[in-house]
Amino acid sequence: MLFFCQQLSDWFRYQLEDNLNTLSTWLEPILMAIIALIIGTLVIAMYLPVLYLGDTIQ
Question: Which InterPro entries does this entry report, sorted A to Z (predicted)?
């Protein structure tokens, strides 16, 4: 019985590690894209007033 419980525990540990590795593999590019969108939005928000100022002066 003890041997069976150890085998079952090892199998569940392996499944958990495999699922976490798969999740992190999918999550990394998604988080990078979200961070890039946030930074791009901030950069555009900072430069838009400068561009509108150039139109106003003319």
Answer: T2SS_GspF_dom
